[in-house]
Known about the structure:
Radius of gyration of chain B: 17 Å
Order of helices and strands of chain A: EEHHHHHHHHHH
Oligomer: heterodimer
Strand content of chain B: 15-25%
Structural class of chain A: mainly alpha
Structural class of chain B: alpha/beta
Distance between the termini of chain A: 46 Å
Low-confidence stretches of chain A: 1-21, 78-88, 105-117, 149-163
Low-confidence stretches of chain B: 1-7, 145-166
CATH class of the largest domain in chain B: Alpha Beta
Order of helices and strands of chain B: EHEHEHEHEEEH
Distance between the termini of chain B: 15 Å
CATH topology of the largest domain in chain B: Spore Coat Polysaccharide Biosynthesis Protein SpsA, Chain A
Mean pLDDT of chain B: 78
Strand content of chain A: under 5%
Largest interface: A-B, 48 and 52 residues
Shape of chain B: globular
Amino acid sequence: MPSEPSERIVQFLKGLFPLWIGAFLVKRSLVEEKMIEFFSRLPVHDDVFFMLRCLFHMESYELIDKELSSYRKRKGSVTLDRNYEDLVLKAEIHLMREVKRLFDGLDRCPGESLKYCNRRLTLAYFRRLKGFVMEGREDLFSLASREGVFRNLLSDMTLSGSYSANDRFKAFLALFFPVLYRLRYRIKRKKLSKLH
Amino acid sequence: MSKQNPFEGSAAGIPTFSVIMPAYNTERFVDKALDSLLQQHCQDFEVVFIDDGSTDNTASLARKILSHWGGGYTFLHQENQGVGRARNNAIKHARGKYLFFLDSDDTVGPEMLGQVRGVVGRSFPDVVATGWKRIDEEGEEIEDGFFITRILQRCLRSLQNGSYSS
């Protein structure tokens, strides 16, 4: 029976990171259900992209970001290759790059931006992008990705109404006054470290 | 939705692991790779070996070693098409609950699959990744990958808290 994304768990043993090295095991049911294959025309790093594809289908975007970061540190390229035989693969690579770009954007914001970003909303955002890619709606995809994460998060927060005034203030600060937000975070962290 | 126990199939003759090993002209290493695999303390696995059109003795060596092993294995051969396609072809013949990709010039410690089995038996993860050691041709260790940075420690902590499921 196909499992839902919420059921999916990434399990790490001692010495996990980075993902591109060491042994990699994946459930056969996941590979079959999502029809995940190795890129047959990549001369190198086909295993890296296989892992990325598994993570992509599991919607583990933070791990994709980490994986791509370590991949790039090794001078790996995520450039689209016109020889990719499969359009869906192309779309996935495209989205992975987009994920990386968005996370890069987040990095320019406060150090704890990933923590600040509501995980549920971030996932919803990436799912929306993924949906556009899969439907071939490049126009909507470009529009949505240009909007950026924070704008989406802010609008979602406003719509949902389930966020406190403090959350909204933090989001506002992070978006328009990142320096102040960082300062606030540093002060808070110092206070916390003193307490511990 | 209940999680599927990966060990349910073991009783029905379905191994927990399918070890996918593609090989191309690795006659210098393939015996070590297979020996390290076949000597696992946990024998709950099958081997899917695929020779990617080797022009040396890789295929015959591997076939000989596997034929002396008491466990289940599949030996495949294809014209040289690259490692990616070889792995894809091998996956089609795999029956295990988990696919484990081991290169024919790599080796694994004797406890490796046993340890992984212990982990997957507890939480049935979709993906398992392990550490590594880089060795030279004599098997001497050059470096290992058992380091965890601060950020990753944080991830690990959230994993341990069960909050890292997607």
